[in-house]
Structures are given as C-alpha cells and as structure tokens.
Amino acid sequence: MSHAIQERPVSQARPRRPLSSAHLPRWTPAAIAVGSIAAGCGIGLAAGWHSKVQWGLASALLFVLATYAITTKVEGSRQAKDRVATSLVWVCFVLAVVPLLSLAWVTISKGIEVLDGYFLSHSMNGVLDAEAGGGVYHALLGTIEQVGIATLIAAPIGLLTAVYLVEYGGGKLAQAVTFFVDVMTGIPSIVAGLFILATWNLMLGFGPSGFAGAMALAILMMPVVVRSTEEMLKLVPNELREASLALGVPKWRTILKVVLPTAIGGITTGVMLAVARITGETAPVLLLVFGTKLINPNPFEGAQSSLPLYVYEQYAVGTDAAVARAWGAALVLIAFVMILNLVARGIARWKAPKTGR
Q1: What residues contact residue 145 under an 8 Å CB cut-off, 6+ apart?
Q2: 290 by DSSP, 3-state: which?
Q3: Which of 28, 134, 283, 326 has a 20 to 30 Å separation from 180 between CA atoms?
Q4: pTM for this predicted structure
C-alpha cells in the first residue's frame, strides 16, 4: 500500500506563479506619446503630407497601437485592453481640444489687433465698410438687448415647463409637451425666424426690431432650457421631497424651497448653454432685425445690429479693414459668452445650498 503512493518528482512540480505581475512605469504613456508624435511627424515628412491633421491622425494611431503592443508584452492582454480604452479616451479628448484651442488662438491673435477702447465705444456711423476705423458698440448693444429679452422670455417658460414635467406631469398632456419639446430641439434657426416673420411682421404688421429677433431666439432657447432643467430636477433625491412633505410643507413650497435650490447649479448651467446657443445665431437677426450702422438703444422699434450679423457683414465686404473688424467682433462675442458663463457660475455657487456645518 505504501508503494502505491508515489511522490511527484521535484522536476515535475508546477511552477509557482508570482504574487505580483510586471507593471509598466508611470511615465510610459507619456514616453509612448512622445515617440508616437515623433514617428507620426517623420511619416508625414517622408510621405510628403502637407496637412498637419494627417500628421496628428497618424500619431494618434501609432500611440494606440504602441500602447497595446507594449502593454501586452509586459502586463498581458487583459491590462492592454484597459490601457487601449484609456488611450482612446485621451485621443478623442485631444482631437476635440486641438481645434478649439486653434480657433481660440486664431481669433485672439487676429482680433486683438483692432480691439481697444475706441472699437468698443464707437459704431459704424459715417464709416464706409472699406475704410479703416469704426467700432462694434451698436452691435454689442443689440446683442445684449436681444439675448437679454430672449432669456427673460425663454428661461421662466422653460423652467416652469420642466417643473411641470418632473413634479406634476404624468398623463397625455405631459407626453404631448415632451414630444413638442423634442421637435423644437431640432428646429433650424431660419425656421424660427420665418415663423416670427410670418406672424409678428406680416400678419400683425410690426416692422423690424430687436424684439422680433429676441422672440425667434427665445423659440430656439426654450427646448434647451426645458431639457437641461428637467434632467437636473430628476437628479434631486426623492428623500428630500419626502422629508419636506412629511413635515407638512405644501408641494409648491417644497419645489420652491427644496427642489429648485438643490438643482440651481445645474439649472443655471443649462440656461447658460442655451444663451451660448442663441448668441451666435445670425439667420433670425438677418430676417427680423435687418442690421444697421447706427446706435439704436430701443429694441422695440427700428432695425438693430448684433455681433454675429456684424461679423457676417464685415467679412462679406472682404477688405483688410473689414476683415480685421470681423475678427475683433468675433473676439468680443467669445468674451461676451465667457463673461456670462463666469457670472452665472458665480451666482449658482452663491445660491447653492451650503453643505456641512
């Protein structure tokens, strides 16, 4: 019996697996990125590619392939797949940021040449489009008034609609409202302008004005406000609503004092996204406001200008002075939207409920 049991020879024993596998150094992704960029530029030069975009795409492809190959060799295929997924995220991020930075750099470098106090405080009154001089004050004033009026119209309607859909809606009316909000989301800006032109200008007999353009912009702004506010209200925990209702607080007061303050940060961000979406629209302004070289502070009567329309008009002239003014107005438009976003974030942070003791 003792001879039936034979011990396994030491040479045939299974090799022990290490408790920890090999890992690449933390600087490996950066090194692979630098090598991929160098290799992509080399391939572009050797192939005679004149477009830097081709160089960048070749570098991105080499970065992903090199990451997979090196990680598979050292850490195994499972970890390689994880690193490839991370690499793809970084590549997509870079592909999205590079055009944005390039656009910002070109706009700043060309717009800063004419951007000064005179440019911001004077209009084009008495200045020929082909001549140097003039300013953007009348267009900036028109943009502020038109966007402000559109926000005053669209923000309350969109906010109340979202509150209804989240807190009260549940029947066929809510389904119909949701359907029409989805339809309005895809409406082209020219269609909104034609709708206001047919009703406000042709049927009711009103002339061109900044208010007409603001109504068209409000149509474009409302679905964005509704959708963003609706999603923010859904993120508010139901426990907060239940706790308030358990204390005997009415539902309308719970919404006003608990739900809205909790979601005020996201709501403000959604409104600012809608503002940024309408600030650059040109078609409704061209149809309903017409544009002018004069300063018109009254948005309810007479033609007005706006920054997008000013950029379009000056660039269409084609002279060096006009194109320089177009770049300056584009830079003012970007700065205008950025300032609005910073102010909105400050207000949201100030009004947000305080956490902790």
Answers
A1: 210, 214, 297, 299, 304
A2: strand
A3: 283
A4: 0.79
